[in-house]
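anyone seen this seq b4? input:
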Amino acid sequence: MSKINIFNTLTNKIEPLITINSDTIKFYVCGPTVYDRPHLGNARSIVVYDLFFRLFLQSFSQVIYVRNITDVDDKINNTAKEQQITISQLTNQVLQWFYSDIAALQVLAPTHEPKVTQHINQIIDVITKILNNNHGYISDNHVLFAVDSYQHYGKLSNRNLNQLIAGARVEVEAYKKNPLDFVLWKPASKDDDPSSIFDSPWGKGRPGWHIECSAMSSCYLGNDFDLHGGGADLQFPHHENEIAQSCCANKGSTYAKYWVHNGFLTVNGEKMSKSLKNFITVFDLLQQQIAGVAIRYLLLATHYRKPFDFNQKSLIDAQKSINKFHQAIKFCDFNQDFLPPSATLLNALQNDLNTSLAFAFLHDSCKNKNWQFASDLYFLGLLDKNLLKSDNDLSEDYILQQIKLRQNHKDNKNFALADEIRKQLQSQGIILTDTSQNNTTWHKV
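predicted toks r here
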């Protein structure tokens, strides 16, 4: 039986996590829409629910974790057109990037990872149920969900339906009866890539965004399951719409029992956006030779429900912590099996994933330099054996690459990052010396 307490957005309070079946937990998390590389906001959600997954694996005999792939979407269509490639070319490339980037963050594979394109029949089945139960209608070749047919609409986001309607600031499409009604199935247009068009009882087209998650979650977890997660930006309307259409398709269903949302991400206090040129991807940091485990530490250092602000200081602090941890266990014997995580560490995480407390414990136990500390680091996904290499393992090419990267940081006035590279090489037995000619030499201790 789990001893986990968790903040449930649905009730707006921390509650004991009591699953439908005591020895099993079934949970669903909204995964990526594959039109571009994952940015730090995407990565935060992925890493947060990966840590929940790791915690659940310690607490339940069976864990079924579903994280979907959205490979049908207007953003995908538009990006493919801009790049003058097919949708499949785009989604295949972005998926490869996605897997490569999150692998660097030590993210475990979920139990199931369904794609929208492989579940069109299940989506059509759910839409059919909604129509048969008089919660949807067809208008101008669109199939729409009738929001006012579901009396509990707005419960998750704590919004009043009448206020939502009155405050709607979008131009209402003529085919909608209610400005809040949302698309379950949209008709194909003449400019659509053929690979994004599917047959349905209502004509050729593609599913709306919200219905995809309802169909895939019920396919793998059943009509009622334990927990649904995602970013705070998905709470409304995406998750609100999921609840409405799922409960209306399956009479008597309450859908997910617990709802968990991770906080927003900003960069130096501003919303991350391409227009502000502060749009940072995981790949950007990896290209700067920032260790994936340092990025993971960075994304988990702030409690998952709080907003997270990315800045150079937080990145440098994360790097320093990771370097300190790996120096502490550099001489451990990695031929033995890892131990279960410490009870103190688990207790912190069982308290609504209190990573601040967990990391404080990690820093405190770092001085022990023992196998239990290494095991705790491994459990959190913060152990990278590549960072344990001694100077004898470092190639000259690697050292010269680090020197070049350090110089780039200095040229861009990122002196703290440049100094961190110097310290990291020094900890591995490599001493850098800057000459008066603005060159850098190195030697082993």
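The mean pLDDT is 91. Residues 35 and 76 are 5 Å apart (CA to CA). kinda curious what u guys think
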